Fold:
Amino acid sequence: MSIDTVAVLARVPLLAGFERRDLERLSRQFRERSLREGAVVTSEGESGVGFFVIVEGSANVTVGGQPRGTLGPGDYFGEMALIDEGPRSATVVAAADMRCLALTPWEFRPFVEEHPTVAWAMLQTLARRLREAQA
Ligand code: CMP
Structure:
């Protein structure tokens, strides 16, 4: 069954404050992706072309084989390689069957550039990860 993309996006913390018409426009860009438990969604060191928002399920993040946390509904991942056009910084594996909404790189950049609140939230996350990596 297809999900109500606008309703899902309205509950994503990254998009807090978005007006309904923005959510409707975004909902036409995001594509639904189903991923089976165990699926490797991003592989550290390899290239990748998706930005993902989790709708259902969860995923484990590892860097160098070390656990870096679990992501769940409302969380996003896959932004780093799309920002710097480098390889994936972490491996993300579906810890349960997942449903995600995904953007391609060519949709992701205008999405961030047009929404400063999204850019700021991503900068905060990047700064936090940098500090954690240096600790
Ligand atoms: P990207 O590098 O494109 O692909 C792997 C993704 O895992 C990365 O983007 C982030 O979204 C996410 N990620 C990387 N490092 C961490 C971390 N320390 N904690 C949680 N998520 C991370």
Observations:
- The two ends are 44 Å apart (CA to CA).
- The helical segments are 5-10, 20-29, 79-84, 105-114, 116-134.
- The beta strands are 31-35, 40-42, 51-56, 59-63, 66-71, 76-77, 91-94, 98-103.
- The chain has a mean pLDDT of 95.
